[in-house]
Design a protein that fits this description.
- It is a single chain.
- 85% of the residues lie in helices and 0% in strands.
- It has 146 residues and is mainly α.
Length: 146
């Protein structure tokens, strides 16, 4: 065994062992305590369902990934642009940063109905707008401070 391979085994071995023991414990405890399926399914049942429904899950996952990536791109781009303006005009940044910090404290669950109402429930842009709001304020604050 090479030094690099041994080092990798030492680094990854304990986390993988804890993960495997956690999954095994979950499986055994669900069976031992006869937990109802709708409350907490067995890991084997989850894996089987993931395999059986892989085509529809893959399609939905790609769709969701596109929406999340679009929202990240919109939110990050706007945040970088606003932070450049705030950095160029310090009094403006000083005046608006408390509002940005306060808006960042609003739970996203409060933004979701507003975005769905503005853009429509089935419109992908409503999900992109929610993702954009999620990443806008952290990117704005860290870019401005950086």
């Amino acid at each position: 065994m090479t030094v690099a391979l041994r080092r990798r085994a030492v680094d990854w071995g304990p986390p993988l062992l804890v993960f495997a023991l956690g999954i095994l414990s979950w499986q055994l405890l669900v069976v031992a305590f006869n937990v109802q399926e709708f409350l907490l399914p067995k890991p084997t049942q989850i894996a089987q369902t993931l395999w059986d429904e892989r085509s529809s899950l893959w399609h939905a996952g790609i769709y969701t990934f596109k929406e999340a990536l679009g929202g990240f791109a919109i939110g990050s781009s706007l945040a970088i642009a606003v932070s450049l303006v705030f950095a160029a005009f310090r009094p403006l940044g000083t005046a608006f940063m408390p509002f940005a910090v306060a808006a960042n404290a609003v739970p996203i669950i409060a933004f979701a109905p507003i975005m769905n109402n503005w853009f429509g429930l089935l419109n992908p842009f409503s999900k992109m707008a929610i993702a954009a709001v999620l990443c806008f304020f952290p990117v704005l604050i860290t870019t401005l401070r950086g």
